[in-house]
Fold:
Amino acid sequence: MSPVPLKVLQNDYSKYHAHVYFDEVTQQQAQELRSLISNEFPFVIGRFHTKLVGPHPNWSFQVIFNSRAFDSFIIWLEEHRDGLTILIHADTGDDYVDHTERLDWLGEPANLNLDAFS
Structure:
């Protein structure tokens, strides 16, 4: 198994979210990844949003997972994301800090709409 690809976020928290970003061009690819995750893991997977939601600057879907799954799921995501950008962040209850300090990216980072936390 390859090392965890994240550079900033470590497995220091009990709960995490992964937000998979997509657009009109990559929508089918994201649907396929969502199905793969659903078949491979017992995680809660959120709605497939084809609109902007919260601080996310792209269409997205969310995956909720815990610290026991962190290392293996991050590696799996990196191997299966096929170019999609994925935001990984802790879920501590402090949404602003979770989305500004306790986060990392698989793929190209995006600018979050932090005004959503106002």
Remarks:
- The longest helix spans residues 27-40.
- The helical segments are 27-40, 67-80, 95-100.
- The longest strand covers residues 15-22.
- The mean pLDDT is 94.
